[in-house]
Amino acid sequence: MTSTIGLSTYAFFWQWHPTAAKPISLDTMLERTAAHGVTLFQICDYPLIEELDLAAVKATADRLGITLELGTRGLSVEHLTKYLDIAGALGASVVRSMFNTVSHQPTLDEATRLLTTAIPSYEKAGVVLALETYEQVPTPTVVAAVEAVGSPHLGICLDPANSVAALEHPRDTVERTAPYVKNIHVKDFSFTRKDGWVGFTLAGCPLGEGLLDYDHMIDTVRPAERGVNQIIEHWVPWQGDPETTQQLEDRWTIHNLNYLRSRK
């Protein structure tokens, strides 16, 4: 087994987001991914995927030698089935999701019922559903849902940075989820004082320059042994204008790729 380094729509967030003067297309993101020598791309929280010609997206990815993964939010059976169908059309073997949607966050019991209903279709299709750790749902709750369903096709998308906002220590998040991790979102982060020294800002930073203990995460999860892919994301703070922010985003991508490649 191997752990492949990939990029995500979150590595191009300020370039495809509506705040961009000329938002780039998914095809452009795929082309730029290939230009970095990267062979894995996660289409994550990208609503336009529901409107695109999926056969054309897959053809572009195939031409560029890129394997696709998929990401969405929500646990309704209808929604998870919809994204399983999209994953099938894209040839994606991983779908990342989260407990919540904009309007609803299920309880543990409700999440367990929904996942128990949805997961047999994922098992039949050979697709893994990975639930992300994030601040709105305690990590033990996400782990409890995975354990209650008990399927090898249901696990965790580990992102230690998210849960910091819920006062969960990143090392604790890593250690609680390690046996169930199916996908990793890799980004570094740090706290800085706000102007006037009143409060803090939690924001992204280049890998190796913040509070993520990357070596501990890798030693604990052992992604290379388990075939768990590492997907680069960014929390790039707004730099005052789109062009400057997008340029910083690209510099972080290059830095983070070099950082991860140096540790393989």
What's the short story on this structure?
With 264 residues, the protein is α/β, with parallel strands linked by helices.
Give your account of this protein's structure.
This protein is of the alpha/beta class. It has one domain (5-261): Alpha-Beta Barrel (TIM Barrel). It has 10 helices and 10 strands. The protein has helices at residues 13-16, 26-35, 54-64, 77-90, 108-125, 139-149, 170-177, 214-221, 223-226, 242-261; strands at 5-8, 40-44, 67-71, 94-97, 128-132, 154-158, 181-186, 188-193, 200-205, 229-232. The strands form 2 sheets. Strands 1-2-3-4-5-6-7-10 form an 8-stranded parallel β-barrel, surrounded by 7 helices. It has a two-stranded antiparallel sheet with strand order 8-9. Helix 7 links the parallel strand 6 (154-158) and strand 7. Helix 2 (26-35) packs parallel to helix 3, helix 5 (108-125) crosses helix 6 and helix 7 runs parallel beside helix 8. The radius of gyration is 18 Å and the shape is globular. The model has no long low-confidence stretch (mean pLDDT 95). This is Sugar phosphate isomerase. One of its GO terms (molecular function) is isomerase activity. InterPro entries: IolE/XylAMocC-like, Xyl_isomerase-like_sf, Xyl_isomerase-like_TIM-brl.
As residue ranges, the low-confidence spans are none
Q: Assign an overall shape.
A: globular
For the record, give the distance between the C-alpha atoms at the N and C termini, rounded to a whole number.
Answer: 13 Å
The tally of domains stands at: 1
What fraction of residues sit in β-strands?
A: 15-25%
The percentage helix is: 40-55%
Order of helices and strands: EHHEHEHEHEHEHEEEHHEH
User: Under the CATH scheme, which class?
Assistant: Alpha Beta
What's the β-strand tally? 10
Label the CATH architecture: Alpha-Beta Barrel
Please identify which CATH superfamily we are dealing with.
Divalent-metal-dependent TIM barrel enzymes
Neighbour order of strands in the largest sheet:
1-2-3-4-5-6-7-10
Structural class given helices, strands, pairing? alpha/beta
* Main sheet properties: 8 strands, parallel, barrel
